[in-house]
Inverse folding.
């Protein structure tokens, strides 16, 4: 197996991981879309890292939060 074959497999694995993360991100965004500001802040303080990213993004979009606010 050549160097470029291995490099191609690594790149393909990274791309698959990125696609999985994006799908999970969109799923969480849909699940959290109807949550109010207090619920999103609670998730931001106590959720798992992926949930925190989505909660912060929604707080920015819906309520104008910045990185300093949340």
């Amino acid at each position: 197996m050549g160097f470029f074959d291995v490099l191609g497999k690594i790149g393909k694995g990274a791309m698959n991981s990125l696609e999985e993360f994006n799908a999970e991100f969109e799923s969480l965004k849909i699940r959290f879309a109807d949550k109010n500001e207090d619920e999103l802040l609670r998730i931001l303080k106590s959720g798992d890292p992926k949930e925190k990213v989505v909660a912060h993004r929604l707080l920015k979009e819906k309520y104008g939060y910045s990185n300093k606010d949340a």
In short: The mean pLDDT is 88. The two ends are 49 Å apart (CA to CA).
